[in-house]
Amino acid sequence: MLALLVALNSAQAGDLQYKWPTDEPLHYRIQVAMEFPYTIHMIGTANTDARIGGIGMVWLVECQAEEPQKKTQAMNCDVVRVEMAGQALARDQSDADKIIAEYDALLEDSTIQLVFTRAGRIKSLDVEGVPKDNKTEATIHETLRLLATRSFSVLEVEMPKDPEATKWRQKGSPLAFRLMTMEGTSGGVRYYHEVTGEEDCLVLITSMGEATVQEGSSADDEDTQRTISLMLSGQAKFDPEAGVLVENFQAVQGVTTASAGQLGSGLVLSQSTMVDLHPGFEEVIAAMDSAVHQEAEEKEAAKETLSFDEDISGPIDLDADEAPLEEEAPIEDETPLEDAPEE
Questions:
Q1: 227 within 8 A of 257, measured Cβ to Cβ
Q2: Nearest in space to 248 (alpha carbons), one of 273, 230, 284
Q3: Could you point out which of 34, 131, 157, 164 has its C-alpha 20 to 30 Å from the C-alpha of 267?
Q4: For the chain, what percent of residues have pLDDT higher than 70?
Q5: What is the reported pTM?
């Protein structure tokens, strides 16, 4: 307990201020795993569409902060590389693979534009470099913006205004509590951060939050909307000397709640996201290339294993008579259910 108190005193909240550097870029790797049990709809430009139930992404972004303004500071994150995979319904997997490959290529030519408050809350996010000249392209652009919103939410850890605080509340509408929907999100959020220790001169910040939200605006008909309960837990590492976020891990789950006009409850979102700061991407890219190469070799080996050029049990005699299938015994009638006694 004494050690924790010393750590808390040495990591005063007054040191928890963002000082995003403007003279050199920050290299962030963001890893995301999202599951949507109810699936989400995605489309491609080649008249393809698919219901996606799971998405995995790895972003390598080079983020350059602009000169801070009085209340905000903009940051442009160029996408150096992105790896994306999706799991769809069996009948949609082929189209899903094509759509994912298309999204992958679009994102690698894009820039994620962020605007932070000086305390670290993200006020806006957009994806630049992706065309949106027609309805299909605009829909794809918005889908990519929603994916970026869910991914870059891990960079949003607001710092306290009170220099003496070790626990504080983040207000507004944090990105982590926004649903993967083009209809928007409305509802209430309770989101807290707390300094819980120190490690290698880095401040450890634990985050806990919950929200009750709906798809669409609050003016929509509530009887036709799903009410969703979101829960978040996070663990961040902040460098108070450099004034930058070094690492953060977030876990978010969303379930529908039983309420008027709704039957039962169920999981609608499960997401794990991690961001870590790197001096550069040379080693990270080398590791990613090695993993891709290994996966390709494993797929090729699997194909060879399934080859039917030779059967170790001997050649198949195509002229041999096949044994007739035995007839199955008939299913006996089940005892009928008795009528329930009248009350």
A1: yes
A2: 273
A3: 157
A4: 80
A5: 0.82
